[in-house]
Amino acid sequence: MKARIKWIEGVAFVGETGSGHGLVMDGSVEGGGRNLGPRPMEMMLLGAGGCTSYDVVTILKKARADIVDCVAEIEAVRADTDPKVFTKIHLHFIVSGRNLKPELVARAINLSAEKYCSASIMLGKTAEMTHDFEIVEI
């Protein structure tokens, strides 16, 4: 896997993935940026959320669960001093579908957290990772 980061100006950068997708990352106005895009640490949270959501949806579909939506809301706390690593990350899943069994949703989330989600497992080396979920019946 490869990526390329190119400095634009100030504290703004363009990132290009190995698959050819680009995005702008920038700092806050207070931090010398123009707020043109997400912060790099926000991107890390999005990566973890996308990775674990992919797992949860895939596991539930393989189990033939009638899932129609999955949202992961993420809250994180960073250290006060440098390096300002994540110290706590909480993922709240909102899984919508028909006749979803709580034990099946919990199993999918736990499998992602403990076995499949590389991003979450990596972040879990410095942060306390917690999860919960709710089911919305459609």
TrEMBL record:
Q: Which residues form a coiled coil?
A: none
Name of the protein? Peroxiredoxin
Species, as recorded: Sulfuriferula nivalis
